[in-house]
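Practice problem: predict the structure.
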Amino acid sequence: MRIALVNENSQAPKNELIFQTLKNVVEPMGHVCDNYGRYGADDPHERTYVQAGLLTALLLNSGAADFVITGCGTGMGATLACNAFPGVMCGRVNDPCDAYLFSQVNYGNAVAMPFSYQFGWGAEINLGYVFEKLFGSEPGNGYPEEWAEAEKRNRKVLMDVKKVTHTDFLDVLKNIDQDFLKGAIAEPSFPELFFANCKDEKIADYIRKVLEK
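Answer:
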């Protein structure tokens, strides 16, 4: 699995801590990690939590990532922003129990974390346990196990609803404010990471045009 980290403005100073913790936990499991920034307090490339949601959707809908870790101060705004876009099923995850239940019951493709809430001494320990519970076992096995089939049916219903209530993601890219889109992909590292892993040529072609303008 290719897992991407996307941070917004307020949590940029914690980017390296989050990314290194993620790598330490999931790379031994065989997963691959990409860091899409922001890369620290001095990173000049602004990204709001709404733009983090847009970038999350871009990575997932294009196939450039299989799963995205994002968040903001409370995790609420990033959750709402991610779920505003098609192809994203994002849960707000604060602790290992949240992570395990999201993985086994909902098995979405993104989580938003509250990186300012109770994020003090030993925060990386909680992060490590969260990532362990998110990625350490096969998702979708249900909890409790006897509810697994019902939970799978409910998840399919939700995904079918999202297909009806959301438009095609390429149309989203074309119709959204283009300066807002450019801001979401402004990191100099973005082209190398994204185009190396993107699996949707139509989305890739459109993003190339945006970057060339």
